[in-house]
Give the backbone structure.
Amino acid sequence: MTEADLKQTDLHEVHVSSGAKMVPFGGWSMPVQYASILDEARRVREHVGLFDLGHMGRLEVKGPDAARFLDSVVTSFVGKIPVGAIRYGLVCAEDGGPLDDLLLYKSSDEDVFVVANASNCATVLAWLNDHVGSHDVTITDRSDELAMLALQGPRSQDALQPLVEGKDLGEIGYYKFAFATVCGIPDVRISRTGYTGEDGFEIYFPCAESVRVWNALLEAGAEHGLAPIGLGARDTLRLEAGMPLYGHEIDREHNPVEAGLNFGISFKEEKGDWVGRAALAAVKEAPKRKLVGITTEGKRVPREGYLLFDGDQEVGHVCSGAVSPTINTNIGSAYLPVELAVAGQTIDMDIRGKRQQCVVCDLPFYSRTRK
Amino acid sequence: MRPDDRKYLDSHEWAKLEGDLIVVGITDFAVEELSNGNEGDLVYCDLPEVGREVEQGETFGEIESVKAVSDLNAPLGGEIVEVNADMMEHLETLAEDPWKKGWLIKIKPTDASMDHLLDAEAYEQHITADH
């Protein structure tokens, strides 16, 4: 895919003119960094950062059977999500291999808003349509109409609140959402969610307002240390927080049970059967491998695809890797056979022909509630 | 325009004749591409042992930034007679002075001809054509 084929968010010109380095990501041209990736990651941990997430897929599932339908195709129990709350879930094939992971915002059993990954949105949309059957639902792709921004970091509420009318953001709990007027735009969806392991918000509003809201946020948030953050730091932050990225920790060959995502999977009888349930139930009974963290003592950074060895035996590969400014070491994620997936276990990583020792640890590397 | 007292590879290494040795480094453009202007984003540089023989075009080392690893390629074949060990511990030198203090290795060339390399003008065209 050439640069010209890439989709652009309404903030593309703003990113380019502020000096961002743009890269292809999931079919989009997105800012990977505005300044130093490490400084951007630190800013989110210590202050607050602003992210353009206009590339994410956003779908509306509405109709009398919305929750019932979703319960037949996603891993989480949509019927049991409280109104106004959000849950993580996945769409899996019959063999338990995920097609994507999602956030599900439930306004009611007849109205669920779904956030998917940019690269998988079309697949998810087609999959949902293929599985509708006799369910009375309407599925609408809102991705091209809605902007999506995230504020992440301990000062997020301070930065966003001045632009919000008629809503105390303190009333929106973790993984809850509400609608309020932001920058004069009515009915903006505001959720206390994110992909960094920090407190923060994600907001959704009409695309045409993107530049105005972006600039208003940067201006209002300046005194709290707000600055734009690229996808490079976002990847570091989510890996530190132990959050999976589709195409790395999870894909068609890497199921959510072995990825440690059981919190997003419901085997409850009341949920009924769903696509992939039997396969994942079998994996849960007898998992073969487990997703773990690895840290290295040397300067070399674990990179996707590096092979891992126990002695001479190849036992896995690195899914994601990063320099972690938060725990000040180099980190990675990897699947290992369950007998090796034990904190403290040492394994060797092959770095382009050279071996480097790594230590296995439990995920996440960083938790703001377990500092 | 980059210094015209040396020659270039399209993979952004430079080669400069000093006496009977070839000094090798990487260009400011390479450093900028790796670090995006943030020297702290360079994390590691792996250089070979003194005494190793390299062929023209062979990978002699690696340089790593926060987000990527890049090969370092030999502009000429020969024996590596010196490596800039200080630089490996002070990668900021690469950003500060890639042309002199940030040199990487010195090669005693089997054939000192540099006709196969780009001159400063051709290198300039190469990087502007890419971007």
Remarks:
- The radius of gyration of chain B is 14 Å.
- Residues 120-130 of chain B form the longest helix (11 residues).
